[in-house]
Amino acid sequence: MKKNKPAEKPITGHVQEFESLVTSPRATTLRMRAYRMIRKILLGLIFVSIVNVLFSYFFLTPKMFRINRENRELIIKYRILQERIRVAQQHIDEIRHRDNSVYRALFSVDTLSIAGVNKPYPEEKYAHFADDPFAQLITPTWMQLDQLARSIYQESVSFDELQPLARDKEKMTLAIPAIWPVDRKALHNNHIGAFNPRRFHPILKRIRPHNGVDFGCNRGTPIYATGDAIVEKANKSGFNGGFGRQVILNHGFGYKTRYAHMQDVEVSRGDTVRRGQRIGTVGNTGRSTSSHLHYEVIYKGRPVNPVNYFNRNLSEEEFERLMEQMRETKFEAF
Prior knowledge:
Blueprint: H1 11-22, H2 25-58, H3 62-106, H4 135-167, H5 169-175, E1 187-193, E2 213-217, E3 222-224, E4 229-235, E5 246-252, E6 255-260, E7 262-265, E8 272-273, E9 278-282, E10 292-299, E11 302-304, H6 316-325
Antiparallel strand pairs: 1-2, 2-10, 3-9, 4-5, 4-8, 5-6, 6-10, 7-9, 10-11
Helix pairs in contact: 3-4
């Protein structure tokens, strides 16, 4: 005999049973507890964040403390570096002073001048430091380093120049122009025209440099080589750019001398001459208004004041008196 199956509840009955369970007091209590727990957690997180911000504001976290310590150490290192650069620059300045006052004076060499060495770098070179929080510390340090590098470069070039002079000092001593090109007794009232790179030309009415000194004396007065040299040019005729008959001596070591407006040229190109050797006589050739010798000292292609080489056989008082006597002349119509 078959057993009767219990009658299945309709679907609507299950839904009603579920709704009654969800809306029961027990389910409501669990939901409220979950809400409260979430709220506590959120409030706790907010509180912890506020405490952390306040603590960070008034106190340093271990990480911030470490960063601040590293920053302080970095500043100290930069200060030490700046001081070392300053000391190094001071040593270089002392070397430069000895170079100009002792070494170059010993070898009778003009002071070295390199164009642009003392000119500061453009500000754009340091522009990329502008946004750095330590820009006020980094930029001056780099500027000091750049200046130090330039100073070292200049002294390196200077010593490279002096090194061969030190090896050939005796030869160089005889080669450098060091005496008067004419007998001082032959001058007209000690009349010497001044070296003037900014001379105002009396005829052309414009600036025209006078790159030598003029010795006013009679035609036929002997002219002497002022140092050992090889004759580079001996123009025994012609206008020659206004210099007339002239001799150019190459003394080596960067030095040359020019003797212009000569009457007679007594040497030839390629001849070797010694200091004090007669090379010609004073004249009035070329663009010249009266008898005189135009004398130049050229160092590394640049005219320098010949008077600076006359003080070898002059006392300080005589040199000062000579400088006072020198004046503009109208020997030449350049």
